[in-house]
Structures are given as structure tokens and as C-alpha cells.
Amino acid sequence: MSKAFTFTIKRIRFDENYRPSDNTRITTNFANLARGERREENLRNTLKMIDNRFNALAHWDNSKADRYSVELDIISVDIDVEGNGETFPTIEILKTNIVDHKTNKRIEGIVGNNFSSYVRDYDFSVLLPEHNKDQAKFSLPENYGELHGKIFKSFLNSKSYKDNFSKSPVICLSVSTTKTYHRTANQHPVLGVEYQQDDYSLTDEYFAKMGLKVRYFMPPNSVAPLAFYHHGDLLSDYTYLELIGTISTMETFQKIYRPEIYNANSVAAQCYQPSLNYQDFSLTQIVYDREERSRLAIEQGKWTEEHFIKPYQNILEQWAASYTDKTEAA
Fold it and tell me: Can you tell me the distance from the alpha carbon of 127 to that of 124, in angstroms, rounded to the nearest whole number?
């Protein structure tokens, strides 16, 4: 069996003074906000939106809607493939913590939330288009997403993860514009109304390779469902405040990045297909360049191919072939 990879974790506070590190994917939600002339205003407004949404959802014993605030840490995960101290930036996620100003306590929130990965950039922006450029019908490359999924599962099994986080991650993303979602009768006090779809999107299948299931919920006073990728039982493994931390953070990001869906002026219908061509929506006061983000994803995917996929190809292939869900990582 190939030797297990080693993961190291770095934390940086996401606040109005945040500046992306050299290793941060600049297409990442939080990094994109922290650029340009309005960077501090962008960050300040984003954090205020998160706090306001949290207090609106956590409304009990909170008559002035100011009891809580959310602290965000960016968790950067580096991987050492050869065990020689040389690392590659693998994953970035967010960790929420909740400050209760009434009790003066800090409450640990959920890790995950946003999900950023250079290897995913490579898979979606380099490998997939290259595979399909001469194909009459869209298809997936053999073993598509397997390496990325195994790296992620190896990280969750690692001592680094277990030493730093007490619960499994929840990643919260936009629903797919290629799928139709149907409202169900199931309703949760915090997550809201559950939606279901007939088949999984490419993103859903990709996250399944990472060992994550998906459920779709539209929280109270939201206008569209969010996709929650998780281990275990989403509804019983986390407290209401933990879930609210994730909802308030990620719904805020989606209002900025996908206003056509998450800042629409009408609520998702019983039968709902999201669209980025929808015109009846409101813009936030936060500056964001979506076209630049798409272009940079391709550049970052090529950078990953050059600095990670090709140099370590033999090691990665051998490791992936021997890795199983029961493999213990370092």
C-alpha cells in the first residue's frame, strides 16, 4: 500500500482586514471580495449581511435582533505527497463560530460551508473540457473525480482533521441550473422547506465521490433552495445555531454571486428550475466580477496540472489505486 499523505492546516480570520495569501485561489468567494478599491467596504458589508441574517433566523430570546455575530476562519489545507515537507495547497473551507453577546460565550460552528479546491479546478476547467472537445455527446473521463474524492476523504480521516474539528463538514452551495427541484411537505424549523430533484447534477455526483450526500432546503424567508452536502444526518447531527451559522454565511455569498437565484424578487415555485438568465432580481451593494472568476478558474486548473497532477502523477495514481474508505491517513 502507498504511504499515506500528510495534511497541515492553517487558519486566518476572515474580517474586513483580510487579504488573500499567495496560495489562495483568487476565484474563491471570500478572496474575490477582498480585492480592488472597495475591498474593505465589500468585506464589512458582507459580514454585516451575515450577522443580520443570523439574527433573523435565531429570533428567539433576541428581540432586538442583535444578540449574535458570526466569526469566520478560512481553513487552508496543504498536502505533502512525498513526505519531504514540500506541500501543495489542496482545499480551502470556512469555519464558523458564533458569538452570543447575551451570555458572552463563543459557540463552535460548522466547518465546511464554502468549498474551494485547486484539483476541482483542474477536473472541471481542464480535464472535462479537454475530454469533450472532440466528442459528439457529453461524457465523463474514466474515474472522473476519483482522485479528488479520495484526497478529501483522506483528509477527513486524518489526524489533522480530527485534532481540529469535532464534527463532520457541511458544504453549502447553489442549486444547479440544469436540474428541476420539487417542493416537498417536509419542513425543518431552521433549514426550512425541503426540495428534491429527479436526478443528480454533475456537482452532486462529484461531491458523492467525496463521500458527501446532498439535501436541498429553502430556509425561512429565502427565495430559493440551497444544496447542503454532508455526512451522517444533517437534521440531527447539528444544533439549530450551528445550522444557522452555515445558512447565514452561505446564503449571503450566494446573494452576492448568484443574485438572479438567491436575490430574486419572487420565491421559488413548487416546481423550480434555477436560472442565471432571470431578470427580476436585486443587486447587493457588493462588487463582484463573475466573468473574471470563470476565466481564472481555467488558469488555476492549468496551474494545478503543471504543479501537482503531472509532477506527482505516478505517486497519485498508485496511492489512489490502493486507497479505500478504510485506509487510515496520517
Answer: 6
Residue 99 predicted with pLDDT over 50: yes
> Which residues contact residue 36 at a Cβ distance below 8 angstroms, ignoring those fewer than 6 apart?
42, 287
Cell of 111: 466547518
Which residue carries 501537482 as its cell? Answer: 308
**CA dist., res. 136 & res. 115, Å (int):** 32
> What is the Cα–Cα distance from 183 to 41, expressed in whole angstroms?
37
Looking at the chain, the whole-number percentage of residues with pLDDT higher than 90 is 69
> What is the DSSP track for 124-176?
IIIIHHHHHTT-SS--PPTTTTHHHHHHHHHHHHSHHHHHH-SS--EEEEEPP
Report the SS3 class of residue 19: coil
| Beta-carbon contacts of residue 261 (< 8 Å; ≥ 6 apart) | 174, 175, 177, 223, 224, 254, 274, 275, 276, 278, 281
Q: Which residue, chain included where needed, has cell 472597495?
A: 38
Query: Vertex 280, ends 278 and 286: CA angle to 5°?
Result: 95
* Antiparallel, parallel or unpaired: β 170-174 and 105-117: parallel
Residue 238 · residue 167 · CB < 8 Å: yes
CA quadruple 196, 197, 198, 199: dihedral, nearest 10: -120
Q: How far apart are CA 5 and CA 318, in angstroms?
A: 12
The enclosing H or E element of 226 equals strand 226-230
Q: Quote the CA–CA distance of 164 and 280 in Å, as a whole number.
A: 43
> Which residue in this structure is represented by grid cell 436526478?
199
Predicted pLDDT of residue 329: 39
Q: What angle do CA 254, 296, 174 make, to 5 degrees?
A: 20
Q: Residues of 252-281 as b/e, b for ≥16 C-beta within 10 angstroms?
A: bbbbbbbbbbbbbeeebeeebebeeebeeb
Model confidence pLDDT, tens digit, residues 105-114 = 999 999 999 9
SS3 95: strand
